[in-house]
Amino acid sequence: MRLRRLDLIRYGKFTDRTLDFGPKPTSGPDLHIVFGLNEAGKSTALAGFLDLLFGIEECSKYNFIHEYSAMRLGGVLELAGVEQAFTRTKQRNNSLLDAIGKPVSEMAITAHLAGLSRDAYATMFSLDDDTLEAGGEATQASRTHQSGRGVDAPTAPHQAQPFRSLPGDWCSRGAGGLRRNRAPVRRHRQRRMVHSLCRMVLVCR
Question: What is the rounded CA–CA span in Å between residue 131 and residue 195?
Fold first, then answer.
């Protein structure tokens, strides 16, 4: 499955906004990076993609401009190499519509999700900045634990450099090795170009 286009018709802060990723290239990488300042709507777009796939959540927090009855998403998915357009409304039954507005079975999408639930899909593929940072810290903790047991752990690229040349957010050493200064990370998050939506697109190609 590949996300061809995401239509944020009436969702969150957006009205009639489209993210069009174009057709799949015939050669080369199919990579799209979506970036922006804090509160630009990256997380909203990711949530919109999940709601397109699985349905708008009953207690959705993205109704702060558009009422539940007016919320609407759309998109084009490439399923088994065929482009199919869908629209999603906020209602309990028949919320998934085809290109002409006719209700279709949820199986039209879920059949291509390998049986994954919304939570499982989000855990596996919908990575955000905090999730990646936590995963990195867990990996570092695991390496430290292995080293303490006498197990040779892989050397991180930055550890091979002199300490004075380390990036600014790696600023101290402790018993567990390098310790990350989280304050600069938080201050500069808005400058990071690779965010959750980029990873979502990679997963859905």
Answer: 11
8 with 14: CB under 8 angstroms?
yes
- The answer to whether residues 26 and 113 belong to one domain is yes
> Could you tell me the pTM of the whole model?
0.68
Q: Give me the number of domains the chain comprises.
A: 2
pLDDT per residue rounded down to tens, the chain (205 residues): 999 999 999 999 999 999 999 999 999 999 888 888 989 999 999 999 999 999 999 999 999 999 999 999 999 999 999 999 999 999 999 999 999 999 999 999 999 999 999 999 988 888 777 777 877 788 888 877 666 655 554 444 444 343 333 344 433 444 444 445 555 555 445 444 444 444 444 444 4
**Are residues 117 and 43 located together in one domain of the fold?**
yes
